[in-house]
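Researcher: Next entry in the queue.
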Amino acid sequence: MSPALKSDVAVIGAGPAGLMAAEVLANADTAVTVYDAMASAGRKFLMAGRGGLNLTHSEPLPEFLMRYREAMPRLTAAITAFPPEALRAWSEGLGQATFVGSSGRVFPNAFKASPLLRAWLRRLDSKSVQFAMRHRWTGWDGDGRLIFQTPNGQRLVNARATVLALGGASWPRLGSDGTWVDALTARGVRIAPLRPANCGFTVGWSAIFRDRFEGQPLKGAALSFGARTVRGEAMISRVGIEGGAVYALSAELREAIAAFGQATLRIALRPDLEIDDLIARVSAPKRKQSFSNWLRKAVQLSPVAIGLLQEAAIASGVSLTSLSPVGLADLINAVPIQLNGTTPIARAISSAGGISFSEIKDDFMIRRLPGVFAAGEMLDWEAPTGGYLLQACFATGAAAGMGALKWLTR
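Model: Structure for this entry, 410 residues:
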């Protein structure tokens, strides 16, 4: 065992929340060491940027804050203090200007995470922030010292303040594996169970549909559950359905499945057509065309959309060809899909649950653990994709850093 080391502030977790907390502290000339179980910083951040790093969103702040649902009151102060405009300015200060896409999402001009992360790590290095990689935090010893498991054995650290930013439990191979839950639970900290968020759902597809349409997108659809409707794309997977529009409804769908064992997602395949127009189209004569070919031409449905209609008809015990024009039109714009479960949390984009906000002070210090702060996905909040996830991670990281700074100078 290595002798105990001293550190002004230990930041545990080298993702956006932890690195932002470290930057806030380093800007105040505080000695900071960032610890992470992985071999390099920002593993999940880099993964998030593979298809284009969606930093934040450009919608007005009141609407933006509504995206955090029940957690909005507890996140408002942090996001207001470090809003989307501040995040964009911060990125530009690192040489990575941003632009607003057609959907209102904000991206770096480079469209990647790696240039931004490299510039950020260089700046942290210039501020004397230290990094200790391959350090897996497992809790505290009897004297309140942080315990890390390293390739060279156990290491103990005395810290005047600690910022925990270990992420949730999605994509565990990138570092956020949720193992911190046991250490905090042992200290009496109340934690809401970690659950998949922005996730896919399982469906009992027929073998024919699954084998033919796995990996096929449903474009231009409108997905509905309860009173909410989301426009966007969905993707047929081997086990069910996923994609941006599905993720936007995932919280409601997940809770319904938890309560009732299943949930019915409804998909409008031609949401831009008025019902009278749609009825007129499906009233057109078929002549010698096959039913599928007639649907494709009359309603401009893709093969996967037609397959989905057939799946719904089989599930309900009816034949598509037996439906009246009104019945067929109604089905086309409200295809019922029975969801029977969520895909595993390890495959989810993010996770819900975490440290209950009742355990957190306004400065993000854990009430039961003086001098210990928490930020990012460790906290009990969730948000849809579109920049809201990263924005809250950056903002709560900055707030936890400010909280730790005030603790040191109290």
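Model: The mean pLDDT is 95.
Researcher: Noted, moving on.
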